[in-house]
User: What shape does this take?
Amino acid sequence: MSGHSKWSTIKRKKGAADAQRAKQWGKLLRFVEVAARDGGGSVDANPTLATAVAKAKTASVPNDNIARAIKRGTGELEGESYEEASYEGYGPGGVAILVRCLTSNRNRSAQDIRSIFTKQGGKLAEPGAVAFMFEAKGVVTVSAEEASEEDVFLVAADAGAEDVTSGADLIEVIVPPASFKAVTKALEAAGISVENADLTQLPKSTVAVEGGDAKRVLGLIDALEELDDVQDVYANFDISDDVLASIAS
Assistant: This one.
């Protein structure tokens, strides 16, 4: 499992206070709204919307909220106008960072992100400086208590997965975007419950980070993810499980 995936899993398992959950729901509903605007309000006919709705449901967003977000996206209800924006930069230790936003004000987003990079010991880079270091993939995780790595591999590989790796608590399935839905459905059809499924950007290579740099990198990532406009943050750091656990505690 990549370093950023491990850190996200640790934070997710720690749970969230009401205020944090409300912020997360807001971001997920914004994703649903934009997906419906760009590809239509049918989950069956719009793969991006299907992914957005699945992520929202995994986070326990109420169905009524999801339905209203879809209607805002299709114009049935009034809503804000959001656009996509991406920012690239470097964190402590030379870690590459890619930030994806859905924003109603690009100037605000750019200023906020630049400020956080500066305060947290990083720096923004020109467009294209780090994006090539990542590639689009689907990542599906299954609890190690749910099934064996062999069982997951047999089902997932047959449905188009590229790789399966096993950690202490989770089994991670790497999937090309085109096979993402098929692999998820195949696992569920085999009685293997999916803990999390997401389309993401995985680093082609990683940068080992230790000591103070590790803490600063994670602080930068967390600060970026706190911004309302930020949907996703991708980074290519590699921090040991022991250090991640120590920082989380």
